[in-house]
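Colleagues,

For the teaching module next term, I've prepared a clean inverse folding example: a structure given as tokens, and then the sequence designed for it. I'd like students to try predicting residues themselves before seeing the answer, so please don't circulate the second half yet.
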């Protein structure tokens, strides 16, 4: 199956298709490895149309690696606010500091050096080095896995055949035109070989594709059996003092939503009311006593591995000195100051509800 002339034919047909139909994305107008790196990280877990405005704003605020490295993490997280998966922003910041420290602020062009940077795996390293330096390094993101699985009629879910798919990606790589090839392969998966209802008749590889020839596009790639996501009920406190300030805390640096600010609270235990949960959590996390008041808002939000319902209540501060027992720091702030801090997406909706009520009263 893998005679040289066939691979060359496939590569040529894909490149010709890309030259006619490839997407005109902003990061493809540059060979600056920093700008390409930023796009690669943003595109992890996030759609292109969402990334583009963030990409422009990011490069305007952090135009080069030294600027990013020397910026406070809170500013970096604020710039990232709304993109989700905040570990990506923290890793970008740490990696920029490593590039400044180890490579004098110049993004490295060796595969092993790029792989050593926080937040960069094999596919991301290949995407950066092929796009920035035209190096012949293969990639295997979600789109590429789907294309290759259909191409060869993969009989197992891609997660169980990663080594086989990497070998195939390496074998098919157009080593004379790696930049174009990798970008074409990603575009093929994003625009033609889509998860549902692929446009097979427009595909340059349809004559070589096992799934198309066998009419198995909807069965390949095979899927792992899915399990329901755990659903957590959370009690959240908007705590007011007599000066009209709200108490917020900054999450621990590592872990989910690390370094972001939030309204304190926690998981509702079995047979526990929402007010009892909120009072208990605030005592455990901040060491203060509060009175739970009116309901503010209820929000549903989904993360990768679980879903949450946030039950948010106004609360009145009663006694005790607030302490950062289970967080990095705490602050009393005026409602109009809340927008200055980086919050998770669900918390920004709480802020909107606070401001709407606050403004209607004022």
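(Answer key — instructors only)
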């Amino acid at each position: 199956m893998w005679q040289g002339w066939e691979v060359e034919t496939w590569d040529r047909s894909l490149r010709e298709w890309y030259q006619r139909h490839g997407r005109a994305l902003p990061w493809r107008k540059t060979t600056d490895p920093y700008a390409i790196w930023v796009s690669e990280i943003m595109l992890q877990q996030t759609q292109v149309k969402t990334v583009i405005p963030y990409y422009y704003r990011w490069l305007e605020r952090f135009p080069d690696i030294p600027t990013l490295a020397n910026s406070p993490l809170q500013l970096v997280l604020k710039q990232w606010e709304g993109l989700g998966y905040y570990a990506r922003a923290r890793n970008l910041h740490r990696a920029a500091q490593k590039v400044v420290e180890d490579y004098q602020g110049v993004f490295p062009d060796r595969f092993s050096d790029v792989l050593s940077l926080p937040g960069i795996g094999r596919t991301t390293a290949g995407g950066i080095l092929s796009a920035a330096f035209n190096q012949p390094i293969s990639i295997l993101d979600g789109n590429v896995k789907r294309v290759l699985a259909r191409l060869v009629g993969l009989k197992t879910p891609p997660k169980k055949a990663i080594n086989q798919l990497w070998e195939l990606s390496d074998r098919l790589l157009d080593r004379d035109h790696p930049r174009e090839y990798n970008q074409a392969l990603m575009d093929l998966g994003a625009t033609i070989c889509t998860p549902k209802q692929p446009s097979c008749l427009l595909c340059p590889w349809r004559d070589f594709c096992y799934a198309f020839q066998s009419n198995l596009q909807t069965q390949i790639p095979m899927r792992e059996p899915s399990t329901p996501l755990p659903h957590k009920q959370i009690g959240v406190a908007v705590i007011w003092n007599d000066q009209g300030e709200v108490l917020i805390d900054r999450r621990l640096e590592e872990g989910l939503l690390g370094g972001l600010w939030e309204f304190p609270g926690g998981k509702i235990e079995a047979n526990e009311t929402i007010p009892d949960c909120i009072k208990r959590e605030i005592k455990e996390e901040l060491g203060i006593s509060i009175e739970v008041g009116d309901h503010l808002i209820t929000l549903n939000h989904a993360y990768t591995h679980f879903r949450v319902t946030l039950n948010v209540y106004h609360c009145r501060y009663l006694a005790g000195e607030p302490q950062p027992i289970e967080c990095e720091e705490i602050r009393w702030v005026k409602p109009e100051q809340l927008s200055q801090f980086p919050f998770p997406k669900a918390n920004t909706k709480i802020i909107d509800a606070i401001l709407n009520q606050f403004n209607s009263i004022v």
